[in-house]
Recover the amino acids of this structure.
């Protein structure tokens, strides 16, 4: 089913078109020539329309709006007006006949015909760490083997390792996040290796030490790194050390990242765009994500700590977070569409589970993996589908349960990646697939 | 029953007289001055409850939660506010809705009346992202409105940074006070002119370790009957906003000048943790009650001496106490509360409790 | 089979050990082999709560263990571990494996169950029921003859036969590791070379690489027992105590640049250093630090509590992590979701023990005073919404009884409650802190286990339980019997750190070639270990300039904060710093006088010799042919820019993986 589209993707991304190579060479030569001013020449590069056009037409990419902490399905995609579980917010009709969303999402209600909503998510883990682990990797853990996180798999499947642009970026202005903080400290790329791990940026967007020090010429910088790399690779091979490999992989990305510094500079983005997405940190980072995928980054994950975990004051916080999310999704999908990128960019909007139908005495809703909602749009996704449903109080899934495996099979299929392909792994590993147990993608939401 | 040793010159004796459940959480309560009935603002509508028997009747509904209710025995009406932004006047004699006013475009967070029955005041405002650190965005419509209690005629409308989660009217109906998410406090006169304001970081958390947004704020406000000082309550800042473990806390503001002066605050050694969402003065003004949720500590209803600010008596309801009101003669206290909503639809999780309150001079 | 095992393990001990084996020890060892071989061939050896699938555990944890826990045992049934589930309750078997319909537990959780479980209206939802059903259908319970174990990692396994205490722990370590490898079909690697050994030892014990002279002294030594001699000599040196003090400072209190000066000024660093230098029993150190009282001269130990300035939850979390090796932070709001033996009551119990403390200045300096009243505040369970009463208890230890005033909030303080002490902070007659030390901490099995595991982790590269601060049922040890034995031996030796350290350093596992072959938790081969910030600073300073520590100490510590990370991963922040940080780059410039003598005076006329010298200085080895070729070509190609070339080469060596990791 997806074999042909996958081939297309790989041909374009891993070999690169002649045009692409020319520009890369120009770029590299330019960098060498102007030394420390490389940043400026890089920024100019992406104004070459032919290059941008080439990328736009072919590459597939993915933005994951990671709603960490777990938003309430009742206050977003699956309102239950008039029911005892409803909460104080009403529902409004959407542009899809008969489909309502929370009144906190007036903008999304007008573009539901460009998205697919799954209202029948049903998963197991009910604590954050386990939930985040399962919903970002697509499967429950099987120690000691570490399954790579979605973004890392996409960096490998859709990206090109030699690109100066990072192939997987995590934008998260809140370095904290309780369990998410612990999770962030863990190994994201898993068995794919550290080179597929994310570049982390966010906050004030400054990445310290990204500029060449004055005392050093560009040539010195490259020469000594070449020797360092030569010595270190020998060591990593001799010692078969994953830690040493991770060390080398992080060094290998230094140069590329230095040349990409402008991509991470919020000031470089048009004021008008910042107004539309902002002013909150999550909105601005989503804009940054759009900018990154436009410029060759195949996989971006946007988070903002763990703001959705509303055990306390659920409605009081959702009244702010949901309208922001509503606007951010509306702007992002609109922009991608305007730029002709929506067909090639998959946007995923979800957290690690849902929230309880029942209120606790702290005005909060607690963790609820039993029945929750998420949304998809763009690349490979059939627009205007609402898949699955919950009972009239939102307590159980009444129709078409979707677990993380089916969800990931759907995500991979939408991006033209064979969900059942086997990972290439060392001999002492068991067999692993992108998605285990031949879990079926949801055909109804796929194009 | 609880009696207690007092820090002040009197002791307090409280005894639970009644306890009735309601189907869904009660967010507000009002005593009828005859002491026979209570009116409840509940998630599923406005109720009348006969205190002796617990017999209840749902009078009417809002389009969302009913969030507050006040009773005007003076003209035999109650007025309720809701998360639908409406104020509804209901006549206890004709058993009919007299008037509905769309007072706000968002929730009514809090509703208060003047003791002299001249005015009622309601506060509103949605928390929307207004800055990089999720400072609230200013509202486009006034967030505090005052009405003539009997005629429903608008008296004044005030702009105040939303969400305005707490509001109060002075006993004479001449001053209105309010507190918001960011810990700002303001007092206006009857023409809507700002009299005094202040700001404090003591109530609001920027959720450093988890949620980079603003959490908490002032959830209760009341004027002291004698001095007219404004008291506000909420909880102290939290490192983890989802722990709900800020200090149980009140502030006292003397607002005679443009900059209101912090004239007293709860003693951190006498309080536990949890969101405080109601303040009520005993008619004598000698003491007041602050109540809310117990997250860690020993009480959820605390009695404080007005003069010294000391905690001298407390109750443990083990529920989220949403409102407390004294009877007009000061001999009884009623509280509304919310428990944990259960899966079983038959499990009732709203609650009212009525206590007798008596005071005895401290013997040597 | 016995024979072949003996031969394998004997060969594996290598020459150093063979020379030291007295015939008596050999006999004991042989007995040990015989016993262990028998034991290890028995089926169903290791069981723990971990053998329950996590989703089942979650269902039980959320719905059942409030009553069906070891402490309460409602109906005689405990739903915490497979053994207790097999044992059933007063009404007989709870589970008939493979037959949900016949299983009492299954019947009672149905809506029509009588008595219905959980009690009251609460009904497990369909997905929870499905979880239980499929588990019952497929569950293979532990064999009844298997010995019971407790879920918390305490010394329950010691009931089985173990080598007698007093045997050289090195032998026991070698025995268990060799046997573990055999069982897993993993081949144990050979011992590393002397040159590798001496660098490894200096880095682990002194936190720096050896100088050329120190290295040569070892290589020139002809005594066949020289590794043991150096282990002894280095581990008894003040430089070792200094290094260990820095490590434990960070592991106990965390990194906090702003506090470093005060930690020195207030005697904390010296206290730790003395403890390691004098090899004081660790249980005594722990007791002093956690009681935090002292005479007028010795105050350094008070700093641990004092620095955490009355933040009682942080204090509780740091005590549990640092001294018990258990992370209890998860249990703040409810019982630990994955490791049900960690209760919310333990979290608040430990907070309770310390909640009456308050920092004070006293005539003799600082003190952590303790009140005799207060600290009875309830805490809320986030799952049930109920408030719970605080009890003075912690991790499987007993509950300390305390007289509870009728109304704690109203209790008045009174001088009668206190012991009279001159010039000291107030000390209550009933001191919760003292009770914690005498009733909970003293002889708590985790105190020894956590320390043994931490030493193991530091020296071998990962803990027997890994990570070292998560010693709970969710993290079973790789070598349970060995950990039991070492902990018991450590306890019986009087919590003797040096004995343990030396035993670890002498072990085959420690001295193996770091080849990376085999699973890391088999310890079949040496592991590559990242250098701590302290070790990086000391080693770089030694080659570049002592000023480095002063100028870049804080930067390096902030960029390389980890000690014994769960999994070592390099961040871009680190590599960007090593590439571009301007002050750091200054240290490689000849112009700035930063580069040390050993490099500055390289033979310009003889690039081959220069190359060899620089490799010896940085890596403690000679270059390979390919390396020589590459480096010499750089030196030659830029003859006019000799200094720049040397700078580049030096940077490449000092930032290479070979330098970054101990191996």
């Amino acid at each position: 089913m997806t074999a042909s589209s996958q081939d297309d993707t790989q041909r374009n991304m891993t070999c690169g078109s002649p045009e692409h190579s020319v520009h890369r060479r120009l770029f590299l030569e330019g960098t060498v020539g102007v030394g420390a001013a490389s940043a400026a020449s890089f920024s100019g590069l992406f104004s070459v329309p032919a290059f941008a056009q080439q990328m736009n037409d072919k590459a597939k990419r993915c933005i994951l709006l990671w709603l960490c902490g777990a938003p309430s399905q009742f206050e977003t995609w699956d309102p239950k007006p008039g029911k005892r579980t409803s909460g104080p917010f009403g529902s409004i009709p959407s542009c899809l006949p008969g489909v309502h969303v929370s009144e906190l999402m007036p903008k999304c209600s007008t573009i539901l015909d460009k998205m697919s909503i799954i209202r029948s998510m049903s998963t197991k883990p009910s604590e954050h760490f386990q939930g985040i682990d399962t919903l970002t990797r697509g499967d429950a853990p099987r120690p000691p083997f570490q399954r790579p996180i979605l973004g890392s798999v996409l960096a490998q499947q859709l990206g090109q390792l030699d690109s100066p642009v990072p192939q997987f970026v995590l934008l998260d202005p809140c370095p904290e996040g309780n369990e998410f903080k612990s999770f962030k400290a863990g190994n994201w790329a898993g068995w794919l290796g550290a080179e597929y791990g994310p570049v982390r940026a966010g906050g004030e967007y400054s990445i310290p030490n990204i500029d060449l020090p004055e005392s050093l010429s560009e040539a010195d910088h490259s020469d000594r790194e070449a020797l360092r790399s030569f010595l270190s690779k020998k060591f990593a091979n001799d010692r078969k050390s994953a830690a040493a490999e991770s060390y080398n992989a992080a060094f290998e990305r230094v140069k590329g990242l230095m040349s990409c510094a402008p991509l991470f500079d919020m000031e470089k983005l048009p004021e008008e765009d910042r107004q539309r997405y902002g002013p909150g940190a999550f909105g601005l980072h989503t804009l940054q994500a759009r900018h990154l995928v436009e410029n060759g980054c195949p996989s971006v994950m946007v988070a903002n700590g763990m703001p959705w975990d509303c055990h306390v004051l659920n409605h009081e916080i959702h009244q702010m977070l949901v309208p922001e999310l509503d606007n951010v999704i509306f702007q992002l999908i609109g922009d991608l569409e305007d730029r002709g990128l929506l067909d090639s960019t998959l946007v995923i909007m979800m957290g690690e589970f849902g929230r309880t139908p029942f209120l606790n005495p702290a005005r909060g809703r607690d963790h609820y993996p039993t029945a929750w909602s998420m949304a998809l749009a763009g690349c490979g996704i059939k627009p205007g589908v609402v898949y699955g449903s919950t009972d009239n109080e939102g307590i159980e899934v009444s129709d078409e349960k979707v677990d993380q495996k089916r969800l990931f099979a759907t995500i991979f299929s939408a991006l033209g990646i064979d969900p059942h392909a086997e990972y290439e792994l060392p001999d002492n590993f068991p067999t692993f697939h992108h998605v285990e147990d031949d879990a079926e993608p949801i055909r109804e939401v796929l194009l | 029953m609880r009696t207690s040793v007092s820090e002040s010159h009197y002791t307090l004796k409280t005894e639970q007289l009644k306890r009735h459940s309601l189907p869904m959480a009660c967010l507000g309560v009002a005593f009828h001055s005859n002491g026979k009935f209570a009116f409840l603002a509940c998630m599923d509508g406005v109720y009348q409850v006969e205190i002796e028997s617990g017999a209840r009747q749902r009078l009417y509904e809002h389009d969302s939660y009913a969030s507050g209710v006040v009773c005007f025995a003076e003209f035999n009406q109650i007025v309720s506010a809701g998360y639908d932004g409406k104020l509804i006047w209901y006549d206890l004699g004709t058993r009919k809705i007299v008037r509905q006013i769309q007072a706000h475009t968002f929730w009514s967070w809090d509703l208060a009346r003047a003791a002299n029955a001249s005015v009622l005041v309601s506060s509103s405002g949605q928390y929307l992202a207004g800055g990089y650190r999720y400072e609230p965005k200013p509202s486009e419509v006034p967030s505090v409105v005052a009405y003539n209690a009997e005629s429903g005629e608008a008296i004044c409308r005030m702009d105040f940074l939303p969400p305005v989660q707490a509001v109060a009217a002075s006993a004479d109906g001449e001053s209105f006070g309010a507190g918001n998410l960011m810990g700002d406090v303001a007092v206006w006169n009857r023409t809507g002119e700002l009299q005094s304001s202040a700001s404090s970081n003591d109530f609001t958390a920027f959720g450093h370790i988890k949620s980079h947004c603003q959490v908490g704020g002032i959830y209760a406000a009341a004027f002291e009957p004698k001095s007219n000082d404004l008291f506000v309550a909420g909880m102290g800042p939290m490192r983890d906003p989802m722990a709900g473990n800020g200090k149980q806390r009140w502030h006292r503001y003397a607002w005679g000048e443009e900059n209101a002066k912090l004239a007293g605050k709860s003693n951190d050694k006498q309080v536990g943790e949890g969101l405080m969402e109601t303040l009520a003065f005993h008619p004598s003004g000698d003491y007041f009650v602050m109540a809310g949720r117990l997250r860690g500590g020993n009480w959820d209803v605390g009695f404080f001496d007005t003069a010294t600010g000391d905690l001298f008596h407390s109750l443990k309801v083990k529920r989220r106490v949403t409102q407390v009101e004294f009877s007009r003669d000061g001999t009884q206290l009623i509280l509304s509360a919310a428990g944990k909503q259960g899966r079983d639809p038959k499990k009732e999780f709203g609650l009212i409790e009525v206590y007798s309150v008596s005071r005895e001079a401290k013997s040597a | 089979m016995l024979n072949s095992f003996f031969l394998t393990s004997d060969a594996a001990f290598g020459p150093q050990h063979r020379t030291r084996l007295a015939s008596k020890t050999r006999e004991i060892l042989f007995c040990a082999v015989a016993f262990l071989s028998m034991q290890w061939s028995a089926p169903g050896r290791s069981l723990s709560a971990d053998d329950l699938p996590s989703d089942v555990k979650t269902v039980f944890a959320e719905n059942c263990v409030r009553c069906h826990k070891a402490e309460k045992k409602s109906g005689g049934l405990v739903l915490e571990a497979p053994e207790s589930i097999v044992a059933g309750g007063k009404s007989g078997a709870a589970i008939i494996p493979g037959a949900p319909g016949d299983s009492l537990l299954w019947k009672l959780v149905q809506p029509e169950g009588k008595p219905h479980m959980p009690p009251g209206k609460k009904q497990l939802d369909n997905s929870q029921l499905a979880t239980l059903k499929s588990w019952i259908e497929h569950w293979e319970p532990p064999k009844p003859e298997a010995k019971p174990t407790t879920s918390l990692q305490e010394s329950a396994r010691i009931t089985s036969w173990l080598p007698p205490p007093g045997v050289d722990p090195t032998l026991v370590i070698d025995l268990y590791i060799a046997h573990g490898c055999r069982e897993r079909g993993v081949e144990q690697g050979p011992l590393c070379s002397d040159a590798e050994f001496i660098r490894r030892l200096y880095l682990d014990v002194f936190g720096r690489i050896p100088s050329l002279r120190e290295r040569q002294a070892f290589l020139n030594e002809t005594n066949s027992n020289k590794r043991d001699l150096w282990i002894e000599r280095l581990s008894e040196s003040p430089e070792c105590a200094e290094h260990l003090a820095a490590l434990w400072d960070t592991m106990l209190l965390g990194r906090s640049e702003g506090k470093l000066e005060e930690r020195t000024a207030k005697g904390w660093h010296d206290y730790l250093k003395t403890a390691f230098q004098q090899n004081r029993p660790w249980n005594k150190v722990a007791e002093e630090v956690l009681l935090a009282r002292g005479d007028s001269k010795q105050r350094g130990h008070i700093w641990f509590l004092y620095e955490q300035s009355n933040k009682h939850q942080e204090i509780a979390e740091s005590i549990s992590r640092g001294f018990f090796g258990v992370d209890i932070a998860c249990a703040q709001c409810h019982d630990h979701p994955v490791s049900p033996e960690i209760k919310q009551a333990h979290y608040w119990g430990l907070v309770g023990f310390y909640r009456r403390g308050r920092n004070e200045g006293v005539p003799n300096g600082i003190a952590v005073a303790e009140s005799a009243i207060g600290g009875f505040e309830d805490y809320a369970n986030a799952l049930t919404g109920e408030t719970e009463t605080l009890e003075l208890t912690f991790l499987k230890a007993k509950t300390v009884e305390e007289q509870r005033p009728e109304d704690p909030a109203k209790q008045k303080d009174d001088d009668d409650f206190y012991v009279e002490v001159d010039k000291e902070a107030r000390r209550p007659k009933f001191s919760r802190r003292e009770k914690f030390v005498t009733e909970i901490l003293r002889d708590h099995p985790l105190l020894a286990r956590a320390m043994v595991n931490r030493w193991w982790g530091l020296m071998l590269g990962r803990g027997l339980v890994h990570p070292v601060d998560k010693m709970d049922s969710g993290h079973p040890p790789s070598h349970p019997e060995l950990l039991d034995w070492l902990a018991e031996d450590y306890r019986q030796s009087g919590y003797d750190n040096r004995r343990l350290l030396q035993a670890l350093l002498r072990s085959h596992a420690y001295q193996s070639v770091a080849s990376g072959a085999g699973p890391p938790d088999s310890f079949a081969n040496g592991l590559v270990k990242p250098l701590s910030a302290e070790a990086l600073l000391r080693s770089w300073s030694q080659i570049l300039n002592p000023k480095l520590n002063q100028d870049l100490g804080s930067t390096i510590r902030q960029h390389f904060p980890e000690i014994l990370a769960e999994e070592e991963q390099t961040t871009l922040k680190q590599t960007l710093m090593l590439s571009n940080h301007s002050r750091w780059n200054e240290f490689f410039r000849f112009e700035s006088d930063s580069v040390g003598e050993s490099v500055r005076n390289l033979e310009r006329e003889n690039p081959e010799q220069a190359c060899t010298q620089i490799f010896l200085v940085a890596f403690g080895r000679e270059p390979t042919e390919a390396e020589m070729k590459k480096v010499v070509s750089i030196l030659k190609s830029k003859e006019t820019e000799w200094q720049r070339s040397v700078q580049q080469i030096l940077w490449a060596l000092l930032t290479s993986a070979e330098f970054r990791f101990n191996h």
The interface with chain C takes residues 4-5, 243, 270, 272, 294-299, 311, 314, 318, 339-340, 342-344, 347 of chain B (CB under 8 Å). Residues 26 and 42 of chain B are 4 Å apart (CA to CA). Residues 1-7 of chain B have pLDDT under 50 and may be disordered.
